[in-house]
Design brief:
The protein is α+β, with helices and mostly antiparallel strands and 429 residues long. The protein is built from eight helices and 20 strands.
C-alpha cells in the first residue's frame, strides 16, 4: 500500500487515500473517510488501474481546482520515458473515480528519481500546486513549482531558488511532507561474495568472499553495514576459520578438505596459506575470532553461516571432539556479543536443532533472530564475469515494497552490494 491524506469528501475532516497492489497484479484505489469522532469508516474501493506497475507510482493529495475537496493524485513514471500526474475525485458513491490527467511530462523532461515532490498552495490563490526539489546530474539543486490553473490542471514548470553545484548534496535533503507518506528508511545492507554455480564452478571462482579484512573493507566501501560469510572447522573441530570452499581450492599448497587438516600442525596445515588468484590474491585465512575482530574494527555486523560439512566434528560420536568443536563456534560469539552485532545460522537441517539449543543455552538467542532477508532474484545467479544487476531490479523493488519500513532500517543481504546500494538512491531515505 501507498498512502496519502486529504479531505476528499469536503466535510472538513481529512481522510486516508490508498493505492493498493494485489498479488494478482491489479492496482486499485480505496478511501478511508474520517468520522466525527476521529476514527475512520470502512474502506471503499474505487478505480482499478489496469496495466499499472506499483513500483512506478507515487501518491499525493491536493485541492488543485480549489473546490474545497482534495484530489488523490498519482504520479506515474511510464516505461517509455514520459511521466504524468493523474487526479481522482470521490464520486457520488464515495469511490475514487473521475480520472483525469493533471500534468503530462514528455520523455526527457525530468527524471522522477531526481525529484522530491510535495503539494501545497504556494502562490495563495486557493488552489494547491505541485512543487519539487530537483537534483541535477551536475550537482545543482533547485526548486521547481507547477502551479494549478483554474481547471485544476498544472501549468508549466516555474524555476526559482537554486543551490549551485557543490553546496548541497541532494540525497541529504528531504522535503517536509504535509500530505503523502514518506519514503521507507534505507535497508541495512549486508554484502555477500559471489560464487558461480553449475558443473566445475570452482574453476570459475574468483574468491570474492569477505573472509578477511580486505574483503570487509571493500564491502564497506560499497555501502554495506555488514557481511555474510562462511564458518568452517578444521580437523576434529579444533579451529574455527573463515573460508568459503569445503576444500583449500583457491589457496596455495596442496588441495585438501578443510575438515581433514589441522590449523597449525602437519605439512598440509591451513595456517599461512594464501589466496592464489582473484582480487584478493595474497590474503590469508583468518580464524573466526580474528575475523570477528576485523568486522568490529570496520564497525560492520557479522552474519555467519555454519556450513554443513562441519557436521563431521559438531555431531561426532566422540564427545570430546563434539564439545571442542562447538566451543570453537560458540565461545568467539559469547566473548563479543555484548559489544558487537553477530548473527549465526545454518542451512543444514541436521545441524540446526543443535545450533539453536547450544546458542540459546549460552544466552545468545538474539543471534538467531532478525536475520537479513536475501533479496536477489533466484533466476539471476552469480557467474564470472557477473551478470548485469538489472536482472535483479524488479525483485529488489518487490522486496523493498514487501519489507522496507518508514520507521525501521530492515536488514537485507545481496551478492550485488555495490549495484544494490547505488540502485537504492532516491528509493529510500
Amino acid at each position: 500500500m501507498k498512502f496519502a491524506t486529504g479531505d476528499y469528501d469536503g466535510d472538513g475532516r481529512d481522510d486516508i487515500g490508498v493505492l493498493d497492489s494485489y498479488t494478482s497484479g491489479t492496482v486499485r484505489l480505496m478511501v478511508f473517510t474520517g468520522k466525527p469522532d476521529g476514527g475512520f469508516d470502512e474502506p471503499v474501493r474505487g478505480a482499478e488501474l489496469n496495466g499499472w506497475q506499483f513500483d512506478r507510482v507515487s501518491v499525493y493529495s491536493g485541492d488543485f481546482d480549489g473546490d474545497g475537496r482534495d484530489q488523490f493524485a498519482a504520479w506515474y513514471d511510464y516505461a517509455d520515458g514520459h511521466d504524468a500526474l493523474i487526479g481522482f475525485d470521490l464520486d457520488a458513491d464515495g469511490k475514487f473515480g473521475n480520472r483525469r490527467e493533471l500534468l503530462n511530462a514528455v520523455d526527457g523532461w525530468y527524471s522522477r528519481y531526481r525529484m522530491d515532490i510535495v503539494t501545497g498552495d504556494y502562490n495563495g490563490d486557493g488552489r494547491d500546486d505541485l512543487a519539487t526539489l530537483y537534483g541535477y546530474s551536475d550537482g545543482r539543486v533547485k526548486t521547481i513549482t507547477f502551479t494549478a490553473k483554474p481547471d485544476g490542471t498544472l501549468g508549466d514548470a516555474l524555476h526559482s531558488w537554486e543551490v549551485p553545484a557543490g553546496q548541497w548534496t541532494f540525497t541529504r535533503a528531504h522535503m517536509v511532507e504535509r500530505y503523502n507518506s514518506p519514503l521507507p528508511l534505507c535497508p541495512t545492507v549486508f554484502g555477500h561474495g559471489g560464487y558461480p554455480t553449475g558443473p566445475d564452478a570452482w574453476k570459475r571462482d574468483e574468491v570474492r568472499q569477505p573472509n578477511h579484512p580486505k574483503g570487509l573493507a571493500q564491502q564497506k566501501s560499497w555501502g554495506a553495514s555488514g557481511v555474510e560469510a562462511d564458518l568452517r572447522l578444521t580437523k576434529n573441530g579444533t579451529k574455527g576459520v573463515m573460508w568459503h570452499n569445503s576444500t583449500t581450492r583457491g589457496l596455495t599448497g596442496t588441495k585438501a578438505d578443510v575438515r581433514d587438516i589441522w590449523w597449525a600442525t602437519g605439512a598440509d596445515q591451513l595456517k599461512g596459506r594464501t589466496i592464489d588468484h582473484g582480487p584478493f590474491t595474497g590474503e590469508t585465512v583468518y580464524t573466526f575470532r580474528e575475523w570477528l575482530d576485523s568486522a568490529k574494527n570496520q564497525q560492520m555486523a557479522a552474519f555467519v553461516e555454519l556450513k554443513g560439512e562441519n557436521e563431521l566434528s559438531l555431531l561426532n560420536a566422540d564427545a570430546s571432539i563434539r564439545e571442542a568443536a562447538w566451543k570453537e563456534v560458540i565461545a568467539p560469539i559469547s566473548e563479543r556479543a555484548a559489544t558487537q552485532k553477530i548473527m549465526i545460522y545454518t542451512l543444514y537441517d541436521k545441524l540446526r536443532p543443535e545450533l539453536v539449543k547450544r546458542v540459546e543455552a549460552a544466552g545468545l538467542g538474539a543471534t538467531l533472530t532478525n536475520h537479513p532477508r536475501w533479496i536477489d532474484a533466484p533466476t539471476v545467479r552469480w557467474e564470472e564475469p557477473a551478470p548485469a544487476a538489472s536482472g535483479h531490479y524488479a525483485t529488489w523493488q518487490e522486496k523493498m515494497d514487501q519489507y522496507a519500513s518508514p520507521v525501521t532500517s530492515v536488514p537485507m543481504v545481496t551478492t550485488w552490494t555495490k549495484d544494490f546500494t547505488s540502485w537504492l538512491d532516491r528509493r529510500c531515505r
